[in-house]
Amino acid sequence: MRLWIRDPLAILAEGAARGLVIEGSRIVELVGRGREPEGKVDAVFDASRHVVLPGLVNTHHHFYQTLTRAHPAAIDKELFPWLEALYPIWSRLDPDSFRLAVRVALTELLLSGVTTAADHHYLFPRGLEQAIDIEVEEARKLGIRMTVSRGSMNLSRKDGGLPPDSVVQDEDTILADCERVLARYHDPAEGALIQIALAPCSPFSVTKRLMRESAGLAERFRCRLHTHLAETRDEDAYCVRTYGCRPIQLLEEVGWLGPSTWLAHGIHFTPEECRTLGRHGVGVCHCPTSNAVLASGFCRTRELEAAGAPLGLGVDGSASNDSSNLMEGVRHALMVNRLHYGSAAAVTHLDALRWATAGSARCLGRDDIGTLAPGKEADLALFTLDELRFSGGHDPLAALVLCGAHRADRVMVAGEWRVEDGMPLDLDVTELRRLHGAAAQRFA
């Protein structure tokens, strides 16, 4: 079936003033001003009320944290004390509460226009060994694309790391499960709905051997590598004290300095380190909201892009955001970067939207999503400007960002509608809110 998304109010694509045509899971034609589709269409969707974007791509999250938003133990703390306060609480995660946390995070992301989500799950307390399987099941039910990052921590407090013993696993257990989920779920093909990445958590929670072995598995299975890096000055000091080098040097030593790697945060890189990352094609996920909440600092977005490093956006965890809304993150990225660079022209609304779409897709190693063009996957986010906040907005694309759009009216993944009239299909949001809220009480 060929579907024409006709006459959008605005669209983030050149030469598509009259919309685009979708066949199956892909875009097959852009329809320019004054033109009709070249081939016969079977159905038409009138998009005259909608601003059409490529589906947003979220490149860093921690779904389980939806259970501990605005938690009193962690409010007004910076990263290390924040983690120390929450690790014992998170150690109580169980499969049922985790499943609800995942479902809530994925639903929130969809409603904000996200069509591809990357989650970094690294907590495996006893009983939650099947966490990756749960994430895959929930993503498939909602029909969202996902890069499920099999995270890990094996360096506990007794070994000189930060996390307590209750949430870490030993290296052999981690590596065996990484191989299991890669063999079972990872699809490296174009158009894949589920991919797996390997994601040792951070320099202060994993060993060098685990980093090296993860890199070897990633090469064997053609998957990507992900970790937190250069998020805080405490992390810099830990690396110098423990390894005798800065985080970027550690990355090189363990064989991660290459185009299959993308990093979360990347705040405290020097200009020379930005150039090093660019030369090696290492991606960086900018997390403006979380960085502000934890007062971690500013990511050098312009320097990284100028050096050639892929740059994407992520909401980060819902205990440091405390939302799973990437459209909101686009607005925050614009404001934070203008403040950082001291110029209103330094970063535009189009830059911020690009980071959340094409840039994020590059971080995940995907060239089949992130833009609207023939041959690309039909992943779309459609927003209306009907709310009072948009009244008087003259440039529809700019209004999405500057006036604070936060909820999509329609979302399509692989040619299938997954959100209609601002609501996810086949999901009772009221009941989900009730169940999730009850589960969260266990973590008070």
From TrEMBL:
Keywords linked to the UniProt accession: Hydrolase
Domain Amidohydrolase-related: 51-417
Family the entry assigns: Belongs to the metallo-dependent hydrolases superfamily. ATZ/TRZ family.
Protein name (record): 8-oxoguanine deaminase
CDD domains registered for this protein in UniProt: ATZ_TRZ_like
Record NCBIfam families: PRK08203.1
PANTHER family xref list: AMIDOHYDROLASE-RELATED DOMAIN-CONTAINING PROTEIN (PTHR43794:SF11), AMINOHYDROLASE SSNA-RELATED (PTHR43794)
Signal peptide boundaries: none
EC main group: hydrolase
GO MF annotations in UniProt: 8-oxoguanine deaminase activity
EC number: 3.5.4.32
